TrEMBL record:
Keywords: NADP, Oxidoreductase. Residues 29-262 form the NADP-dependent oxidoreductase domain. This is Plant-metabolite dehydrogenase. It comes from Halalkalibacterium halodurans (strain ATCC BAA-125 / DSM 18197 / FERM 7344 / JCM 9153 / C-125) (Bacillus halodurans). The keyword Oxidoreductase applies. Belongs to the aldo/keto reductase family. Substrate binds at H112. The lineage of its organism: Bacteria, Bacillati, Bacillota, Bacilli, Bacillales. Gene3D superfamilies: NADP-dependent oxidoreductase domain.
Length: 276
């Protein structure tokens, strides 16, 4: 189990992915993203998650270049945006992302959303990028069970990761079970439900018992559920405190209480019903 910030899970192709990382969704290009990525790397983070649509890949790349940490010690994720889906356009979008990041390979590349009529072709483009050695692992984001089944049927490679909205109000048990059966690592975005869970009485009580913050309790719950997590923050002290979750363990009773908070409630779009 994850017992430090550098701890990794092994994806089904043998690549090691950190259990914990920094997400940069809605972090502004330029100084803000450069500073937050540098702060995270200084604090011991190895995994940084961006996407073409975030518009901050250049800043992430600059921070990586200036961090002084060898490239092979870092785990960098990006994603192909919906407007670029399809085989040739995905290859082209990947090359653009790589150029913006200033890197010669990615550790993980994801299909950002299951765009109807396009995500299978897009997946085939990712398989090619993987086979060409340009990316160490490939996966999907916001895929439900039926989307995953389509890809498993049409493709030749099982996705290594599925990054989805995941938090105590949206535990996605069926999806998580399906991913486990197929050796697809589940990864959480919006693990704190954009801050909406931080005042939940159950979580607050567990936090007090462990002398931790509510955010730390939720992030620890992710890890003990074997879900990779990438909380976003631009504040240095928050980046550091989010990662201070390796010196305690939630009890089975704590885990059960948090699991029971599920309402199947999303803060982001529904993967079966989005129009972007």
């Amino acid at each position: 189990m994850a017992n430090n910030l550098q701890a990794t899970t092994t994806l089904h192709n043998g690549v090691k992915m950190p259990w914990f990382g920094l997400g940069v969704f809605k972090v502004s290009e330029g100084d803000e993203v450069i500073q937050s990525v540098k702060d995270a790397i200084r604090a011991g983070y190895k995994s940084i998650d961006t996407a073409a649509v975030y518009g901050n890949e250049e800043g992430v790349g600059k921070a990586i270049a200036e961090s002084g940490v060898p490239r092979e010690e870092l785990f960098i994720t990006s994603k192909v945006w919906n407007a670029d889906q399809g085989f040739d356009s995905t290859i082209s979008a990947f090359n653009t992302s790589l150029k913006k990041l200033g890197l010669d390979y990615l550790d993980l590349y994801l299909v950002h959303w299951p765009v109807k009529g396009k995500y299978v072709e897009t997946w085939k483009a990712l398989e090619k990028l993987y086979q060409d050695g340009l990316v160490r692992a490939i996966g999907v984001s916001n895929f439900q069970v039926h989307h995953l089944k389509d890809v498993l049927e049409a493709g030749s490679i099982v996705p290594m990761v599925n990054q989805v909205e995941y938090h105590p109000h949206l535990t996605q048990t069926e999806l998580h079970d399906f991913c486990k059966q197929n050796k697809i690592q589940l990864e959480a975005w919006s693990p704190l439900k954009q801050g909406q869970l931080l005042n939940d009485p159950t979580i607050v009580a567990i936090a007090e018992a462990h002398q931790k913050t509510p955010a730390q309790i939720i992030l620890r719950w992710d890890l003990q559920n074997e879900v990779v997590t990438i909380p976003k923050s631009v504040k240095k002290d928050r980046i550091i405190s989010n990662a201070d979750i390796f010196d305690f363990q939630l009890t089975e009773e704590d885990m059960q209480k948090i699991n029971e908070l599920n309402k199947n409630e999303r803060v982001g779009p529904d993967p079966d019903n989005f129009d972007f």
